[in-house]
């Protein structure tokens, strides 16, 4: 990635014999309609984001690609992630799916390609993973990872292919802190990326512990939650289509949470999912 004047730390991802750097704070576009994605991503790039997280199933890769085509930023200044959907797992289907995604995005390669869900009933994630590694060697992706993998799925990849994902993108917010998975990631050089990092803008942002810290620091509850993610080492990809929120969610490098704040937020864990359980989600 080119040197740019950004406050966002770069996080190293394993990628074959080298490493690739992902910005620790990026921009997610789940539920942004294709027709609105170009404007949303353009607003995010203008606010300073240099990482965009989309997926084939979001149906907005073309809109994201439009923003990438419109910007004056160089391709290597923007980190682009997309994902192979469950129906396209398996060797040939995954190859075809990446080609389709690249076509919509208007790119020769993505920076990170992820398996979207393990889909245990389908039992194709090991072959899909081998395909992602081959596509990386071919230069169609720079790094390979997964989403929603539990320890048992990761261990199976290790046993059957000898290589673990560089990153696992999982549901993670103050009400679902994923301690066991984060420890496994840390022990195995896997980066943790948090999806629904703001708890989808719901109850988490009204929690008295969060609002209390926000009031004391003179920041928003979302900024407190994002700062918590950054300080515990997560890569984080908040979504917003609201220009003011896009900006304020990026403005999280001018203050710090204390150890006491971090402890108080740690105490909020309820093991409460907003999305499906990866062990049983076979959709
Ligand atoms: N791999 C997976 O399976 C998976 C699953 C889910 C999500 N993801 C990725 O993770 C990204 C983020 O997750 P998410 O979209 O589920 O949820 P999120 O980022 O936790 O929350 C987004 C919601 O919060 C609102 N919001 C954003 N900033 C706010 C602020 N400062 N104050 C109050 N509300 C705010 C947004 O509203 P407005 O947009 O109206 O401003 C939106 O409704 C997704 O976009 C996607 O890229 C991946």
TrEMBL record:
It comes from Barrientosiimonas humi. The keyword Oxidoreductase applies. Keywords: NADP, Oxidoreductase. The record marks 83 as: Lowers pKa of active site Tyr. The active site is at residue 58. Belongs to the aldo/keto reductase family. It comes from the Bacteria. Substrate binds at residue 116. This is 2,5-diketo-D-gluconate reductase A. One of its GO terms (molecular function) is oxidoreductase activity, acting on the CH-OH group of donors, NAD or NADP as acceptor. Residues 25-269 form the NADP-dependent oxidoreductase domain.
